[in-house]
């Protein structure tokens, strides 16, 4: 990629965001900023608990993203992004770095498949407690009013999702 871009990912846990983000990072060389990794590190070093995170991981990630975007590196923001508030933080970071943003919401239209993914995955971050299916269903998640790309991982392979993102990003 010739110019820095913020790939702003969002979607409920278990929809494939991190899997696609890793593949997109491998294909583009973009920085993969994963909120779960940042938040778990904040918890592990004792700066907060899971209950007191309240956006701290997003704030750290936005600061890191802004620095990398300003240096001309593309960034993949890999997070649930359940609130318009946090999406606006990311948009502000991209605007400050004068770079383009591609907002991508991940869904899994097949509830049985989504549940199966959520219940069968294992944490790849030490000590991270993954949400249960019930917690995923109860999670606050606001609609995305801004124009964005919606990818249904019940219908797309990882490679097809990456190809589609790259096509739209051109």
C-alpha termini separation: 9 Å
Helices and strands: which structural class? Answer: alpha/beta
- Helical stretch tally: 7
CA-atom Rg in angstroms: 15 Å
Helix/strand order, N-terminal first: EHEHHEHEHHEH
**Overall pLDDT, averaged?**
95
Total beta strand runs: 5
Largest sheet: 5 strands, parallel
The residue fraction in helices comes out at 40-55%
Folded structure, characterized:
- This protein has a five-stranded parallel sheet, sandwiched between helices.
- With 170 residues, it is of the alpha/beta class.
- It contains seven helices and five strands; from the N terminus they run E-H-E-H-H-E-H-E-H-H-E-H.
Give keywords.
170 residues; alpha/beta; 5-stranded parallel sheet; 5 strands; 46% helix; 16% strand
How would you sum up this structure in a few lines?
The protein has 170 residues and is an alpha/beta fold. The protein contains seven helices and five strands.
Describe the protein's topology.
Elements: E1 5-11, H1 17-28, E2 31-34, H2 35-44, H3 56-70, E3 75-78, H4 84-96, E4 100-107, H5 111-120, H6 133-138, E5 149-152, H7 158-169
Parallel strand pairs: 1-3, 1-4, 2-3, 4-5
């Amino acid at each position: 990629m010739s110019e820095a871009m913020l790939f702003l990912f969002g979607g409920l846990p278990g929809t494939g965001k991190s899997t696609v983000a890793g593949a997109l990072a491998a294909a583009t060389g973009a920085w993969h900023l994963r909120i779960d990794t940042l938040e778990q590190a904040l918890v592990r070093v004792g700066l907060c608990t899971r209950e007191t995170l309240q956006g701290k991981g997003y704030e750290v990630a936005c600061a890191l993203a802004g620095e990398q975007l300003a240096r001309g590196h593309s960034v993949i923001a890999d997070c649930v992004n359940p609130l318009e508030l946090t999406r606006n933080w990311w948009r502000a970071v991209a605007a400050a770095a004068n770079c383009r943003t591609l907002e991508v919401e991940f869904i899994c239209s097949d509830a049985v498949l989504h549940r199966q993914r959520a219940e069968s995955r294992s944490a790849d971050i030490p000590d991270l407690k993954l949400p249960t299916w019930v917690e995923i269903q109860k999670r606050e998640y606001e609609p995305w009013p801004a124009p964005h790309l919606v990818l249904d991982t019940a219908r797309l392979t990882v490679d097809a999702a990456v190809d589609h993102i790259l096509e739209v990003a051109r």
